[in-house]
What we know:
- It holds the Pfam family DUF3799.
- InterPro entries: PDDEXK-like_dom_sf, Put_RecE_PDDEXK-like_dom.
- This is Putative exodeoxyribonuclease 8 PDDEXK-like domain-containing protein.
- It comes from Larkinella terrae.
- This protein is an alpha+beta fold.
- The chain has one domain (about 1-220, about 225-230): Alpha-Beta Complex (Lambda Exonuclease, Chain A), CATH 3.90.320.10.
- The chain contains ten helices and five strands.
- The chain has helices at about 1-10, 15-25, 35-50, 55-65, 70-85, 85-95, 140-150, 155-165, 205-220, 225-230; strands at about 95-105, 110-120, 125-135, 175-185, 195.
- The protein has a five-stranded mixed sheet with strand order 1-2-3-4-5, sandwiched between helices.
- A hairpin with a 4-residue loop joins strand 2 and strand 3.
- The longest helix is centred in the C-terminal third of the chain and has 19 residues, at about 205-220.
- The two termini are about 15 Å apart.
Amino acid sequence: xxxxxxxxxxxxxxxxxxxxxxxxxxxxxxxxxxxxxxxxxxxxxxxxxxxxxxxxxxxxxxxxxxxxxxxxxxxxxxxxxxxxxxxxxxxxxxxxxxxxxxxxxxxxxxxxxxxxxxxxxxxxxxxxxxxxxxxxxxxxxxxxxxxxxxxxxxxxxxxxxxxxxxxxxxxxxxxxxxxxxxxxxxxxxxxxxxxxxxxxxxxxxxxxxxxxxxxxxxxxxxxxxxxxxxxxxxx
Length: 235
């Protein structure tokens, strides 16, 4: 996965993470204002442990070289909680993991990219289910739902769904139904799972789409002077 991570970052297209950095730069703050660096690294290690378990050793060494045994054990426990859940385990078996999608935003004509945790495509039903996992400090369903707004997950959901709708290879052109479920994995005991069907929340995706297209327009306004700088930092 480390190689795939490097390859994804090297693709000269705009990602949702790029839009986050653009927002932070424009507003004068960094991600650490909301999410400590350590927590971000733990979240990335969790994703690797869950989605690419064969490479977890390398990822932990890269991201958390000083990880204490208790933290490593917590990481394993969280992934086991997900694998024990019948809904999650089903789609862990059936879905594409870490799927990279290249697309062109129709409003700005900017070349974009997305890397989706899990994508399950049903040609028979002409439907797609996307699952995205988030480690969270939320202790209730309502707290996790609020964090979806606080951390711009609505923007991410819209960006990822539109990556499928407008993919350069038109792989999902015949799809009729798109569903996106955010899975919150509680970092503290009792390590509950929270599920938010983002596509069932009124205006959630539409508002997120307005947000990402606002920042894509800002991005385009910076071209060509600053685009190269951002793309070198892309992820």
